[in-house]
Protein: Sorting nexin protein WASP-binding domain-containing protein
Amino acid sequence: NFFLTISVPAGGPAVLDLQEVESKVDGFKSFTKKMDESTIQLNQTVNEFARKQVAGFKKEYQKVGHSFRGLSQAFEMDQQAFSVGLNQAIAFTGEAYDAIGELFADQPRQDLDPVMDLLALYQGHLANFPDIIHVQKGALTKVKESKRHVEEGKMEIQKADGIQDRCNIISFATLAEIHHFHRIRVRDFKSQMQHFLQQQILFFQKVTQKLEEALHKYDNV
Structure:
């Protein structure tokens, strides 16, 4: 058993408050359940959104672009000089919408895919905690039983103390793992959300740039 290789930190409390430990573990159990449910839902939502961007959004934007080019081709039937600038501007607008469609198709690799990778990683982490919590709960149960057996004269106090010591070690290790998980979780999700939003901003700046370029084509019409 891994817990047998662990020793309690020197200078630490001899015995942890079992009620406090149980409360913290129960709270973490509820947290992991809720986090697991939310990561599954977010992963499904993000995956669907990415799929729409790669296929649906690209197709719709390029459909708009194609329609603008069709209008431009119709206008080109008028060969008068004052029409040329407008024809070219509308054709450029169609090209801009084609380009925006390509931007949408490429964007999930920049922002949504990394989010899904992180969610998958944490779903793997969360899958490990039920076993850890089960061991912790088992240790707490044994301590409660040993105290009752001592009171009933069915167990020597020295043996009960040994059970208490083992539970203490398991509790220290479990609480340390919970603390470490939360610290790493905050670090990872902060970094990922910053990256996601930065990439979203860059993406919409590119879209805005394409639209502004198209808009300027009409200045001299």
